[in-house]
Amino acid sequence: MKKIEHIGIAVHSIQESRGLYEKLLGTNCYKTELVASEGVNTAFFKTGENKIELLESTDEQGPIAKFLAKKGEGIHHIAFDVEDIFAEMERLKSEGFVLLNEVPKKGADHKLVCFVHPKSTGGVLVELCQEITENNG
Q1: Which candidate in 2, 22, 71, 77 could, as Cys together with 8 as Cys, close a disulfide (CB 3.0–4.6 Å)?
Q2: Residues 43 and 60 occupy one common structural domain
Q3: What domain of life does the UniProt record list for this protein's source (predicted)?
Q4: Which residues have a Cβ under 8 Å from the Cβ of 1 and sit 6 or more positions away?
C-alpha cells in the first residue's frame, strides 16, 4: 500500500455538508460524481496530498443509507492507494482478510476499488484503490 488515498465520510446530504467541509478544510469541493452501481453521490475535497470523500446515499437500501441509519454521519472508510489492486487483493486473502468483492469494481474518481470486510480489520472498512489505466480498466 502506497499511501492513504482518501477518507470517506457518510453524510445525509452533500448539499448541506459541502459548505461545512469547504469552511473546515479551507478549500472548495473539486469534484462531484454519481456512482450509480454503489448507490451514492460523492463529493471530493483536496488539501495538500490529502483527500476527503463525502458519501450520500441515493438508495434507501444501499450501504451508505444502512450505515447512516445504524451509526449516523461520520467516517465510513479509509482508502489506500495500491500499485496493483489484483496482487494486493491476493496478498490480503492469503493473509486471511475477507474481501467484500472477488474482483475490483469501478469506483469514484477514476479508480478500481475493492473493500475489505471490517470484521477482518478490527472494525474499520478498508478500501483499496488503483487509478484506472488502459491496462487494468
Answers
A1: 77
A2: yes
A3: Bacteria
A4: 80, 81, 82, 88, 128
